[in-house]
Design brief:
Layout lengths: L2 H15 L41 E7 L2 E7 L3 H7 L4 E8 L3 E5 L12 E3 L4 E5 L4 E5 L5 E3 L1 E7 L2 H6 L4 E7 L2
Antiparallel strand pairs: 1-2, 1-10, 2-9, 3-4, 3-10, 4-7, 5-8, 6-7, 6-9
């Protein structure tokens, strides 16, 4: 590899690592002159950057069905946080299509930023916007408009085994 190619490659990598931000110098620095650095570097403030990552938190939950508990996790989405803020919730579930248990929520969650359609594989906790309901998928329901995954739960077989409508209490556990 020639020196010019190596320098070009280094410049490309450096530009990628620094976010392609260039600040022009006020006056050109003559060749061979030392370049001074600031006395103390200023830390990068990512709180104002449009692409800055927000802190992600999940919520562990238990779903109590007549004394039996199923453990789950709500993700860090806006919808999940909106539902977590309502916990504990006691809801009346019914079977829907032999694939999921569904229960209407007393208050519809904030769905800003949610996709218009998504899928809900086995073990998914989802919000179904058209019915304003929480959904516990014990079978793969495919992709549908209005389904918004918000977490997962353990033991889908336990839900599949329940053949009647039931009441469950969902609680945050930490």
């Amino acid at each position: 590899m020639s020196r010019r190619t190596a320098l070009t490659a280094c410049a490309v990598v450096l530009a990628a690592l620094t976010g392609c931000v260039a600040t022009p110098l006020a006056t050109p620095v003559p060749s061979g002159s030392p370049v001074s650095s600031p006395a103390s570097p200023t830390p990068l403030d990512t709180s104002r950057s449009p692409g800055a990552a927000m802190p992600q938190t999940t919520t562990r939950i238990t779903i109590d069905i007549g004394g039996s508990e199923i453990v789950g996790t709500l993700d860090a989405s806006t919808i999940a946080a909106s539902i977590a803020a309502q916990l504990p919730l006691t809801l009346s579930f019914e079977d829907y299509g032999g694939q999921e248990k569904i229960a209407p929520l007393p208050v519809a969650p904030d769905t800003s930023g949610a996709p218009a359609r998504s899928s809900a594989p086995v073990g998914t906790i989802a919000y179904y916007a058209p019915a304003k309901s929480i959904v516990l998928s014990y079978a793969d329901v495919g992709t549908f408009s209005g389904i918004m995954p918000i977490g997962t739960f353990d033991d889908p077989a336990a839900l599949r085994a329940i053949t009647t409508d039931f009441t469950a209490t969902i609680r945050a556990t930490g």
